[in-house]
Design goal:
With 321 residues, the chain is of the alpha+beta class. Helices cover 57% and strands 16% of the residues. A four-stranded antiparallel β-sheet has the order 1-2-3-6, with helices on one face. Helix 2 packs across helix 3 and helix 3 runs antiparallel to helix 8. The two termini are 25 Å apart.
Length: 321
């Protein structure tokens, strides 16, 4: 449980993974080989592998949920799409008109221009029907000159078009603002995801270092009772020149204090790193090499640690031979 909790940092998932490990131990126990390593080292290795697999699974799930959340936050672009479509149509018409003007000015394609001129000439030369002239003259007598007021009454369509253009501009501006805000949110979420991945990589590297000690062929294990019902287990590998300390049920240290690990070099204590004061169950790769250390100790020190022990040891453990 301590090894799993050190990797997952979540009580519920740690209990679930620990249960899976126990089931796997029971199921695969016939394949255990005492000549490769001790039973406790085999079990701890299984626990570490299961915990790392769970971290990778959770990280993959979080990445999928992050991508789905980004897709859900994308704004609707219907109005902007319509605005862009109209703009592209207007640009296409302008390009066509510019092309026609250039053709006319350069005098190219005379056959096409001659055909167009001929059609225009036919249209002008066509005589109107006699009745059409009478209808036009009769309509002229009934149509008066438009006054400024009436001209103002005829302008609402123009104002409506202007309002529509302004609405399109506001819609475009709002969309750009929403896109900018989304971009800021995306950058923040991306940074959060990068930080989480960095933390996961560091945790995985530390867990791999712990697993290397636990799985070493010469790993030796010693368990001991600590204060207030807590237990501690130290795993030592001389070939790796490393030691791992597994704690379970550790009481929270006093405010501003923390637990510090020490190598015992023949009576001289050498710092081996700090434990997390907020966690009662944890697995710690002791900092530094074994060298000639014959054991280890645990003391309560100031939060930043001490160069030498400043309090009586909570526990002293001799490394197994």
């Amino acid at each position: 449980m301590g090894v799993v909790r050190a990797v997952l940092r979540d009580q519920a998932q740690s209990e679930e993974v620990a249960q899976e490990v126990l089931v796997e131990v029971r199921r695969t126990s016939p394949r255990y080989r005492p000549d490769v390593g001790t039973a406790i080292n085999w079990i701890l290795t299984l626990a570490h592998r299961r915990a790392v697999d769970r971290v990778r699974s959770v990280d993959a799930t979080a990445s999928r949920e992050h991508k789905a959340a980004l897709l859900e936050q994308l704004p609707e672009y219907d109005e902007v799409a319509e605005h862009d479509e109209a703009r592209l149509e207007r640009e296409q018409v302008r390009r066509c008109l510019r092309t026609l003007t250039e053709l006319q000015q350069s005098g190219r394609h005379p056959a096409e221009l001659s055909a167009t001129a001929a059609r225009l000439g036919l249209a002008v030369a066509t005589a109107p029907r006699p009745v059409l002239r009478e209808q036009v003259l009769r309509r002229i007598t009934t149509v008066g000159q438009e006054t400024p007021g009436r001209q103002a009454q005829a302008s609402p369509p123009l104002r409506a078009r202007r309002r529509a253009r302004r609405r399109s501009r506001w819609a475009l501006a709002a969309c750009l603002a929403a896109t900018t805000a989304l971009g800021g949110t995306t950058v923040w979420q991306h940074q959060r995801a990068e930080d989480a991945r960095d933390q996961a990589r560091r945790t995985e590297q530390a867990a791999d270092a712990v697993a290397a000690v636990l799985a070493a062929p010469d790993a030796r294990t010693l368990a001991a009772k600590l204060a207030d019902g807590a237990t501690g287990t130290v795993v030592v590998s001389r070939s790796r020149d490393k030691a791992v300390f597994v704690a379970s049920g550790m009481a929270r240290p006093p405010g501003g204090k923390g637990y510090q690990l020490w190598f015992d070099d023949g009576g001289t204590m050498r710092s081996a790193g700090l434990m997390d004061p907020d966690r009662s169950d944890q697995t710690v790769l002791m900092q530094g090499t074994l060298d000639k250390a014959s054991g280890m100790g645990i003391t309560v020190e100031p939060g930043g640690g001490s160069k030498q022990p400043t309090s009586a040891p909570l526990a002293l453990m001799t490394f197994p031979g």
